[in-house]
Amino acid sequence: MTAPGPDTVVLGATRAAPPAGVPARTGHTAPAGEESLTEVVVQVLARALNGLPAPLRRTTPVLLAATDHCVATTSGYVARCVEAEAGGRRLRPSESMAPEPAQLLQEFAERSDWDGAGHVLISPRGAAEQALRWARGAVAAGLHEAMAVCELARDPESGGYLVTGTLVAAPAGTPSPGGSAGSGVVLSGLGLVTAFGDGVDPFWRELLAGRRALSDLTRFDAARFRSRTVCQAAAEAGPGLPVRRVLLDRARTEALAGAGLTRLPERTLLVGAGVVPHLPAVDDAPQIREISLEEEWDGEGFGVSPGNAALLAHACASGAFGLAMAREWLLSGLADMAVVTGVSALNVYDYACLDVLRATSTRTARPFDRDRSGVTIGEGAGAVVLETAEHAAARGHRPAAALSGIACRVGGRGTSALSAEIAADCMRAALDMAGTDRVDHVHGHAPGTRQGDEAELLALDTVGAERGWRGVPVSSYKGAAGHLLHASVFPALAAAVQALRCGVVPGTPGLRSAPDTRHVRVPAGPEPRDGIRSVLVDNFGFGGNNAALLLTSSATNPPKGEEPAWQTRSC
Q1: What is the tens place of the pLDDT at every residue in 408-421?
Q2: What is the CB-side half-sphere exposure of residue 212 using CA atoms within 13 A?
Q3: Residue pair 375/174 in contact by the 8 Å Cβ criterion
Q4: Would you say the C-alpha torsion 499, 119, 61, 37 has a positive or negative sign?
Q5: What is the C-alpha to C-alpha distance for residues 420 and 322, in angstroms, rounded to an integer?
Q6: CB-side neighbour CA atoms (13 Å) of 382
Q7: Pairing mode, strands 161-169 and 10-11
Q8: pLDDT tens across 434-472, in order?
Q9: Distance of alpha carbon 136 from its chain centroid, rounded?
Q10: Are 445 and 365 in contact (CB under 8 A)?
Q11: Which residue has the higher pLDDT, 100 or 384?
Q12: How many angstroms separate the Cα of 23 from the Cα of each of 114, 140, 145, 147, 377?
């Protein structure tokens, strides 16, 4: 093989010794060529999955460890933003955000028959090791028959990437995994910060009242952007402390208190969304610490071991993908407890990305409305404590709800378009995992974009027709608290948990003209509703990131009047 050049992408394979009884199969080494990174990733994954029977090959989950790729692409984008700001101009379309790592999986799905779940880990230390632990544990526990791990590691000699693929597969004759394991994981604590203040209570109260936390943007100069109206949280950070840390600390405090914890167990998994690893090439850029970690990241102060502190990159669906990862680690015995966090601190880089894509509204967001025109960006943070139902019972804790089903898929076409077909597939899979067709309420993703909201309603109507829904109410919080981007699932989880507890469906603030639908409906205001036992939560993102999850009333919820302190909130 000739010596690789500075732009060469190297194709190769790794070998890692699996635990006893769980053999690992690897892709094959191939010479470097002129292929693009996308083409090489497609080749590696195709080879890694090649030996599997076709039905299994199509559904095998893929874990992509892409820390180096994320650092390189994000650093390049930040540099373009700094240059545009110095020139007092908006970004040009050619300068927009490079494809996120998940779009490599989106392309693999488009070019092959693969149709499985995909997760992208960008942990600052050990993303590939975390992915391999996950794959081995989940296969050994019978959650999957096989999982593929693909790593993109920067090759310092060539300047390109070393792309490696490993398949972890169950031994021949192993029974197929069941689909109902999700009923064993519960939400034990939930913390939230929004523009309405700290806590689930003020958010829920203002959502039911139909109020909108709209304000002028003051975090940075937005003169060159299309929109200057946001939902900005109250946050005063000390010298050298990012706003995101202040927001996360406040959400964490509420979540741990709700879970009845003063500290986390030693075997706790932390999954974070809304930040990227340290970006040394641009670490002096303005506001960079609102989107990137410090070099010596400590897990945002949660006190977990570095090997159990993971970051995921799935755009605005990152929170739901994090819940899916946490569920599998808990059910595989890789962790005793999990905390999933997300944060969106207003910053020029996220703002510029949505501006160049023309996703922000020049007015204000009106989710699902016929006259909707785009997103109003919000600010805030969320934290969720998860554990198995057995673990919660053993320590005498009564959880808020059960995570009865969840499905995450990477697919579709284009950067920003939502695929109604794939969104519907996620909803079906979440319901099937939970073993039910019943949905009493849907908290939609619905950021207020024309294409996204329409595709989501089409997906809901399609699934509703198949499952016998009649007038299931659908709402969205984003007209009230704004779109929290990577952390967008957390207010939706809070609304879902409160709907289960209080027996009230929230409305959609900002809605004036409801769309035509057949099997679901979009109420403008809150509606009392007896017997809410299940809430479907949608969470979608750019780059083909799709997720849906089903929360159900926990079987361990106590009778009214006997709730633990954190559940005695006002409805």
Answers
A1: 999 988 788 999 99
A2: 22
A3: no
A4: positive
A5: 22
A6: 30
A7: parallel
A8: 999 999 999 999 999 999 999 999 999 999 999 999 999
A9: 22
A10: no
A11: 384
A12: 22, 10, 11, 11, 46
| Other CB atoms within 10 Å distance of the CB of residue 228 | 15
Neighbouring C-alpha atoms within 13 Å toward the C-beta of 355: 21
Comparing C-alpha atoms, which of 448, 508, 449, 445 is closest to residue 473? 508
Distance from C-alpha of 349 to C-alpha of 77, rounded to nearest angstrom: 8
Query: How is residue 168 written in tokens?
Result: 């972890």
- For residue 397, the one-letter residue type is H
- Please say whether the beta carbons of 455 and 419 come within 8 A: yes
**Maximum Cα–Cα distance for the chain, whole Å?**
74
The burial of 87, by beta-carbon neighbours within 10 Å (0-12 exposed, 13-18 middle, 19 or more buried), is given as exposed
Residue that the structure tokens 């680690």 belong to: 329
Mean per-residue pLDDT for 38-45? Answer: 89
* Six token digits for residue 507: 């409305």
Structure tokens at 147: 């999982």
Catalytic center residues: 316, 445, 483
What's the start-to-end Cα distance of the chain, in Å? 68
Residues 552-566, mean pLDDT to the nearest whole number: 54
Q: Kindly tell me if the per-residue pLDDT of 84 is higher than 50.
A: yes
